[in-house]
């Protein structure tokens, strides 16, 4: 069943665990995410990026998530979130369609422009009882940026004092931080670098809103658990969902099966398994 994200976050804060926020792209990945959460007896955040919304259609993907939440996910709590929104029009569409949380990603802009745009979205969303996530710092994406990150972390990592000012000025509800986490497929092939947990500790001391970890695919369990203890309450998984789905389809195409329904069924099950495994880590062995 659909609930407001604030309910899920409040329960996570109280229980000292993190919520899994999994990206969906279509009917099958949505089914897989919900099936995995149901199997784990856990609440879940289903999120959609702006690019995926343009691919699938805002109305279509919203209806898929909403309908499956009422049927397949009727016994668990599900919140819908816009991931990496960049245009005001898309965020307004998602808010009007019932998303309880939207992210405005203006982290590539200057600090002042990031504050201005994020506050604009927050003012609009809060009048409609919708939470807003902002981002400060740069979550890197490739080998070169990873090398640059460790040579000069100051250019990439979230600054604790700026984070405090950013939250105060924008009135956001959650903050996505850059602490060495990286987006994309590089880490799946070469391993994820260690997080700057001391920086996260400093941010936690300065900021009073729940913290979000993007680019968490393939981060070792030990690192994830340390991050949770230091205030991470939402953990985003995108790349591992894509790869689980793709690998299962690749295997299916090697068989003589011709019915798409059976081919996609393996993708649903692969996503479900990945989600269940991640939730077990994120909940940090807390009871559901």
Helix and strand pattern? HEHEHHEHEHEHHEHHEHEHH
Strand content: 5-15%
CATH class: Alpha Beta
Structural class call reads: alpha/beta
**Order of neighbouring strands in the sheet with most strands:** 1-2-3-4-5-6-7-8
What's the CATH architecture name? Alpha-Beta Barrel
Q: In the CATH scheme, what's the topology name?
A: TIM Barrel
Helix content: 40-55%
Estimate the mean pLDDT confidence. 92
Tell me about the largest β-sheet: 8 strands, parallel, barrel
Give the tally of β-strands: 8
Shape: globular
Secondary-structure map:
Layout: H1 5-15, E1 19-23, H2 27-39, E2 44-49, H3 50-56, H4 58-70, E3 78-85, H5 88-96, E4 101-104, H6 111-126, E5 131-136, H7 143-151, H8 160-170, E6 174-177, H9 186-190, H10 197-206, E7 211-213, H11 221-229, E8 232-237, H12 239-253, H13 260-282
Parallel strand pairs: 1-2, 1-8, 2-3, 3-4, 4-5, 5-6, 6-7, 7-8
Helix pairs in contact: 2-4, 2-13, 6-8, 8-10, 12-13
Characterise this structure.
With 288 residues, the protein is an alpha/beta fold. The chain has a single domain, classed as TIM Barrel, CATH 3.20.20. Helices cover 52% and strands 15% of the residues. Strands 1-2-3-4-5-6-7-8 form an eight-stranded parallel β-barrel, surrounded by ten helices. Helix 2 (27-39) crosses helix 13 (260-282) and helix 12 packs antiparallel against helix 13 (260-282). 50% of the residues are buried.
């Amino acid at each position: 069943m659909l609930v407001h994200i604030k309910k899920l976050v409040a329960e996570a804060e109280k229980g000292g665990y993190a919520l899994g926020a999994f990206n969906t792209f279509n009917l099958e990945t949505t089914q897989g995410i919900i099936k995995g959460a149901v199997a784990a007896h856990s609440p879940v955040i289903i999120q959609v990026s702006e690019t995926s919304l343009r691919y699938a259609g805002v109305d279509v993907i919203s209806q898929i998530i909403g309908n499956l939440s009422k049927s397949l996910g009727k016994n668990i709590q599900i919140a819908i979130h816009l991931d990496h929104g960049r245009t005001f029009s898309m965020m307004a569409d998602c808010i009007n369609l019932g998303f309880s949380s939207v992210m405005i990603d203006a982290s590539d802009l200057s600090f002042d422009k990031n504050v201005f745009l994020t506050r604009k979205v927050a003012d609009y969303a809060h009048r409609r009882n919708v939470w807003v996530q902002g981002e400060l710092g740069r979550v890197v994406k490739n080998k070169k940026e990873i090398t640059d990150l460790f040579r000069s972390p100051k250019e990439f990592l979230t600054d604790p004092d700026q984070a405090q000012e950013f939250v105060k000025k924008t009135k956001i509800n959650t903050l996505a931080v850059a602490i060495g986490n990286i987006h994309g497929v590089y880490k799946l092939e070469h391993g994820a670098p260690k997080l700057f947990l001391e920086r996260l500790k400093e941010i936690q001391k300065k900021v009073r809103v729940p913290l979000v970890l993007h680019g968490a695919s393939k981060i070792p369990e030990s690192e994830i658990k340390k991050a949770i203890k230091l205030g991470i309450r939402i953990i985003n998984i995108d790349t591992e969902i894509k790869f689980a789905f793709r690998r299962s389809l690749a295997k299916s195409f090697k068989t003589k099966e011709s019915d798409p329904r059976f081919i996609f069924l393996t993708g649903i099950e692969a996503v479900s398994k990945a989600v269940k495994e991640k939730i077990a880590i994120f909940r940090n062995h807390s009871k559901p």
